[in-house]
Amino acid sequence: MPTLMQEELECWSQALLEGAGLEAQAAETVAVSLVAANRRGVDSHGVARLPVYAQRLRVGSMNGRPQPKVERVHGAVALIDADHGPGQVAGVLATDLSIELARRHGVGAVAVHRSSHYGTAAYYAIRAARAGLVGISTTNAEPFVIPFGGLLPALGTNPIALAAPTPTGIFDVDMASSQVAHNKIRNAAAEGRSIPEGWGVDEQGHPTTDPNQVFAAVPLGGYKGYGLAVLVEILSAVLAGSGITHGVGRLVEELERPQDVGHFHLALDPEPLVGSARFAELLGGLLEELKAIPAGPDAGEVLVPGEPQARIQAERDRLGIPLPDAQWALLEGLSRELGVPVPDRVGEL
Ligand SMILES: NC(=O)c1ccc[n+]([C@@H]2O[C@H](COP(=O)([O-])OP(=O)(O)OC[C@H]3O[C@@H](n4cnc5c(N)ncnc54)[C@H](O)[C@@H]3O)[C@@H](O)[C@H]2O)c1
Question: What is the pTM of this model?
Answer without folding.
Answer: 0.97
